[in-house]
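Ticket #4471: structure export looks truncated?
Reporter: QA, pipeline team
Priority: medium

Steps to reproduce: submit the single chain below to the structure queue and open the exported record.
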Amino acid sequence: MIELPEFNTVWENKYPLPGEPVRLARGTIPVIENVDQIYEGEIQEIRERTKALILPESGNYFFSFSETPLVGVHATDFYPQNNTIRPGGPSLEKAGRRTIHFSLNCIASAAGPLESKEDIWTTKKYYIIAPLADLLETNQAIGGVTVDFFFAKQVNLPETAKIFGAASEAKKYIERIGKLRPSGQDSWANVGMINDAGGNFFKKMGLWGALHSHHWTADYEDLISRGVSHKEAIRVILKTEAAKSMGYGPGHIQRVKKEMGFFGEVPSLHEKELNIPQGNSDTACLEDIIVNGN
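Actual output as written to the record:
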C-alpha cells in the first residue's frame, strides 16, 4: 500500500484571492511526476478561485457545470519556454498552425475509431493544466466548445498553471479539481449535450461557440500553410465572412475583425470586392472594413 504524504491543513494564500488580478507564471514551472506532490490546500485554493471567477457569469447555462471548476488541458511534446505555449515548434509553424487548443476538464481524445489514434494524446511528454478563468484573463481567447477551446497565436501561462509528465497524473489532478460526470458516465469528452451547452455559454460571453473547423481561423491556417501571406489570407476570408454575415446576423463582422486583429493587421477592402448579397441587413457592420473609391 502506497503511503501518501501528509497534507497541510493550513494553507497560506499562495495565489491571488478571487477577484484579484491574475499573475503570470514566473521562473521555470516544474514538471510534476506525482500528483501527490501537490498539497490539498493548494488544490482547494485553485478550485475555489476557479469557481469564483467563472460561475457568477454562467447562470444555468452549464447546468452540471455550475458545481464544477473549469480547467483547460493542453497536451504537447513541447515544454512551454518562458511559460508561453506557442504553436508546436518549427514543424507546426511550417504547417500554418496559428491557434492554441485546450480541452476542458479532460484530456483530448482523437477523432475516429482507430485505437492507435488515441495514443496521440495519452503519450505526450507534457500535460499543461490551468484554470480556464485565468487563461481567459491573460490571453486572447477566440472560443470553441468543451472538447476544443482555442486561443489566438500563443498562450501565456498564469501562475496557477501546473505541468504534468504523464497523462495518468494529469487525470488524477483533474479528478481532484472537479471532473464532470454527466448522466453517470466516467468521461464527458464526447457527450454532445455538454459540448453544446459549453458552446452556448461561450456565445453568451461574446466568444465563438462551435468547433474550430467551423471557424474562419481553420481556413486562415490552411491558406498560411499553402504559402499565402497574412494580408492576402485575411482579405480572402473577409470577403467570405462578409457574404456569410446575413446568416450570422448583426455584429458578426465586428467580432471577426476583432479576432483577426489578434493575428496582425486587418486590411480594408473596396466595397466592390465584398460581393454582399442583396438585402443583407448587416451592411452597417461592414462599414469599418470598406474603403471608398474605385
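Status: closed, not a bug. The export was complete when the record was re-opened. Leaving a note from the reviewer for reference: The chain has two domains: 31-211, 215-291.
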